[in-house]
Amino acid sequence: MPSGIGASYRSLADDVYKSTTVAENKFSVIESVKKAFSFSSGGAARRSDPLLTRTDAQQATPEGGAANSTMPSDSMDDIELRNIQLQFPQARTMSREDSQLHEERVETGRGSVVVAVQGNRSRPAILTYHDLGLNYVSGYQTFFNYIDMRALLENFCVYHVTAPGQEEGAPTLPEDFVYPTMDELSDQLSFVLSHFGLRSVIGFGVGAGANVLARYALAHPGKIEALCIINCVSTQAGWIEWGYQKLNTRHLRSKGMTQGVLDYLMWHHFGRGTEERNHDLVQVYRNYFERHVNPTNLALFIDSYIRRTDLNIVREMDPGRKNNTHTLSMPVINITGALSPHVDDTVTLNGRLDPTNSTWMKIQDCGMVLEEQPAKVSEAFRLFLQGQGYGKWLAANC
């Protein structure tokens, strides 16, 4: 130490060391241990600790004065925890018994379809259509029961349309049954609107269902006020898709739900790397596809989907020729997941739509957006409806 300072310097570490190790100190080892425990519990030993200065004691009190004679820990009684019960979250199910919706079978020109109604029928109508391997329960039940959507749907009525033979517990369609084409499936929606007395609806479709709604919107633009489509494909099937799906339909008809078909369905809905992202959700859908899907009926739906024709949508930038252009004239929000295998298809569709009335949205970290990112989709859908003039219906929920 410097000579000018060494005479007045006192090592605090030496005092602490001697007080706990040197036998000649006035504190024994046992007393030192007792003092350490009383220091940690805030007892009287802390107040007699020579290391605690007067300034520290003043800071320990609310008024900055002397420390109280009794710390809160001194007067605390022992607490005994009783009646502790473990609560486990309810298992995720996909059953229409849990949906509590009213189902009606609507007769159309190409067979009948099941329509489930959710909400007050006097409210503005939202019409949904599901994707391959799903129906209104497995495709939309979780999303429309999401807390933000339940608040929104207090002012809307949803009509869930299920493709022929795709409802839960559906009997196998007859061998001579000719499944409707994609254009004929879209024509069935006219019978649905007429059955419920709907003049126009807001379309909400995923995958194959989005393609059906897009076809209906092109044929009946006055019936669709706005369109929300997810993973929509606007082109005809390519050779790779056609080959895979042809193999799938053959297996579904002859062997049922094979592992190859199951893997393809999981890829179709979730993309790759799903096991690492959400293992529990994957198991739920695997179990659903294996046990609750009629393989023969699904094969017919898939075969109709791969035989789809191009939507022939054209983007026309000349204002004078837009009225004669074959395109979606209503507002459109085109959504996909960043991990979905259909990202490129949605980009292609976005390039064919009118940029003045369409929006493309890619949601990160998901493939099946309704299941993996319901909060983001519900927020986007709510803002989309506000932009279409439904603010008064949403004001109570914003």
From TrEMBL:
Residue span of region Disordered: 41-75
Signal peptide extent: none
Origin superkingdom: Eukaryota
InterPro entries: AB_hydrolase_fold, NDRG
UniProt cross-references to Pfam families, sorted A to Z: Ndr
Biased composition (Polar residues): 55-73
Family indicated by similarity: Belongs to the NDRG family.
Identification of the protein by name: Protein NDRG3
Native species: Gryllus longicercus
Lineage of origin: Eukaryota, Metazoa, Ecdysozoa, Arthropoda, Hexapoda
